[in-house]
Automatic annotation (TrEMBL):
Name the UniProt record assigns to this protein: Alpha/beta hydrolase
Transmembrane segments: 12-33
Limits of the AB hydrolase-1 domain: 111-300
Keyword Signal in annotation: yes
PROSITE patterns: PROKAR_LIPOPROTEIN
InterPro entries assigned: AB_hydrolase_1, AB_hydrolase_fold, Pept_S33_TAP-like_C, Serine_prot/Carboxylest_S33
Taxonomic path: Bacteria, Bacillati, Actinomycetota, Actinomycetes, Micrococcales
Superkingdom in the source lineage: Bacteria
Keywords from the UniProt entry: Hydrolase, Membrane, Signal, Transmembrane, Transmembrane helix
PANTHER family named among the record's database cross-references: 2-SUCCINYL-6-HYDROXY-2,4-CYCLOHEXADIENE-1-CARBOXYLATE SYNTHASE (PTHR43248), TRIPEPTIDYL AMINOPEPTIDASE (PTHR43248:SF29)
GO molecular function, one term: hydrolase activity
Domain Peptidase S33 tripeptidyl aminopeptidase-like C-terminal span(s) in chain numbering: 426-518
Family according to the record: Belongs to the peptidase S33 family.
Length: 519
């Protein structure tokens, strides 16, 4: 059994979730480092001299922009990319792209964005939340570009289960005691059915849904947009995508900001372990906040309240609660709800409501949070983020953990994250994926690249701060910006210090004079 459970494999939840949560749940000293390579270029025909002959038809394609059907003021197009970058004769796929033209006049260039995941829609991010994604100053100066990576959304997409089968896969409660042979067998059978459906319904694209291929797609987008270098803002998993681009094309790095970094050098087991500890830490921070209010359903110290929450999870694990739509809320779905709310402090009041109602036997708000995490609305799934997430991670992460390493990780999580631990492990869904992983886990230096800003938040549960520190250290030109605070990612999260540094970098090429800490 691998400790990388279904939830842990889904750990890099996209920042697009935070955008929606903000609207849905709450209603609501620098030195200029001269470096010509980092200066934005005007959008002109890029230099294609280094492009292999067999790839020139892709790089020379002309784009036709039309107003997006569902987004007045935005333009949409599609870009054709090779299915297999090593064999262009293997076929093509389509990438959906959206553009918001610079509102202040002539753009300094294009600014590509990625909201994370893997599996979140970049088209949706820019269409629905342009201001949150990049802010007014950047959308004034740049043509802001959102795109759905291969396998995602409106691009050629990974397709697996229908809504009814997805409900069963994500929410059904496995029989038998947690950790028993019967319990594990049921979950493994569910993983097999999911993988089989993905293979049957995705038209042969699964082996090519990788971060390496997606980074090569970004270089294609850079070129067909008319830019000689790539300007890019990536969140969460989007930092891994951006760092991979810098590894593959260091000479084409323009201005890159990687916010909420993923450490490309650590294994999937290390990812899962660090995230478990991160969510426990965030949960304790939430509990301190809860106990300071008048409406908290828990009492006593943080330790006592965490113990009571553990008891609540154990209770619904033994005796699930039935929601108004007939679904049963067990401990796994309740933990999903908790995790969803921990991504942003603005969602903490809704976690209080969900936990209060669950203690009263009413699970609907907890289901609301879990559904939000899973991309489910009114019984339907509004995107394919779960499917794409699985496809990318099963191809990107080598399955090289030793049993002894797994045992050590489980022991560490049990000791340091006791509330989360019982619901973090389970059969690894990638064990039954139809294709072996092709990705590697290694440090990324991107020698020769222009300065790259890496943002880390000190109590980020999903992409823990030490990952940002590590990535900034790995990158030859990395500069670390530390946001002291809670929640996932740091730009446009209320820190003028962080925001000013990012905006100055994108607008003027101003790079912090060494690492920067924003209290």
């Amino acid at each position: 059994m691998s400790i990388i459970s279904r939830r842990a494999r889904r750990g890099f939840t996209a920042v697009v979730a935070l955008v929606a949560a903000s609207a849905l749940l709450t209603g609501c000293l620098y030195a200029l480092i001269p470096d010509d390579a980092s200066s934005p270029r005007e959008s002109v025909a890029p230099d294609l001299s280094g492009v292999p002959t067999e790839l020139l038809p892709y790089y020379e394609q002309e784009l036709t922009w039309v107003e997006c059907d569902d987004a007045p003021g935005f333009e949409c197009t599609s870009v054709t990319a090779p299915l297999d970058w090593s064999d262009p004769d293997a076929g093509d796929l389509s990438l959906a792209v959206i553009r918001h033209q610079a509102s202040d006049g002539a753009p300094v260039g294009s600014l590509l964005t990625n909201p994370g995941g893997p599996g979140a829609s970049g088209v949706d991010l820019i269409r629905d939340s342009l201001g949150f994604a990049v802010g007014d100053e950047l959308s004034g100066a740049y043509d802001v570009i959102g795109f759905d990576p291969r396998g995602v959304g409106a691009s050629t997409a990974v397709t697996c289960l229908d809504a009814e089968a997805m409900d069963s896969y994500l929410y059904d409660i496995a029989p038998g005691e947690r950790g028993s042979v019967e319990w594990e067998q049921t979950l493994t059978e569910g993983n097999e059915e999911f993988a089989t459906a993905c293979e049957a319904n995705s038209d042969g694209i699964l082996p090519y849904i990788t971060t390496d291929a997606s980074a090569r797609d970004m270089d294609l987008l850079r070129a067909v947009l008319g830019d000689d270098t790539l300007n890019y803002l990536g969140y969460s998993y989007g930092t891994f995508l951006g760092a991979t681009y810098a590894k593959l094309f260091p000479e084409r790095v323009g201005r890159l900001v990687l916010d909420g970094a993923v450490d490309p050098s650590i294994s999937g087991l290390d990812v899962s372990t660090t995230q478990a500890l991160g969510f426990e830490s965030a949960l304790r921070a939430y509990m301190e906040y809860c106990l300071a209010g008048d409406d908290c359903p828990f009492r006593g110290s943080v330790d006592e309240a965490m113990a009571d929450l553990g008891a609540l999870l154990a209770s619904v694990d033994r005796a699930p609660l039935t929601g108004s739509d007939g679904r049963e809320l067990g401990a796994d779905s309740l933990m999903t709800a908790i995790v969803a709310a921990l991504y942003s402090q603005e969602s903490w009041p809704y976690l209080t409501i969900a936990l209060t109602e669950t203690l009263e036997g009413l699970p609907d708000t907890a289901f609301f949070l879990a559904d939000f995490y899973n991309g489910r609305e009114l019984g339907e799934y509004i995107d394919n983020s779960t499917e794409a997430f699985r496809a990318y991670n099963c191809m990107d992460y080598p399955a090289d953990e030793l049993e002894s390493d797994v045992a050590d990780a489980e022991a560490l999580i049990a000791a340091e994250a006791p509330t989360v631990a019982p619901y973090w492990s389970g059969p690894d869904p990638c064990d039954v994926w139809p294709y072996a992983p092709t990705g590697v886990r290694e440090p990324i230096a991107a020698e020769g690249a222009a300065p790259i800003l890496v943002i880390g938040t000190t109590n980020d549960p999903a992409t823990p701060y030490e990952w940002s520190v590590s990535l900034a250290d790995q990158l030859e030109s990395g500069v670390l910006i530390t946001r002291v605070g809670e929640g996932h990612t740091g730009f446009n999260k209320g820190s003028a210090c962080v925001d000013d540094a990012v905006v100055a970098y994108f607008l003027d090429g101003t790079v912090p004079d060494g690492d920067l800490t924003c209290e």
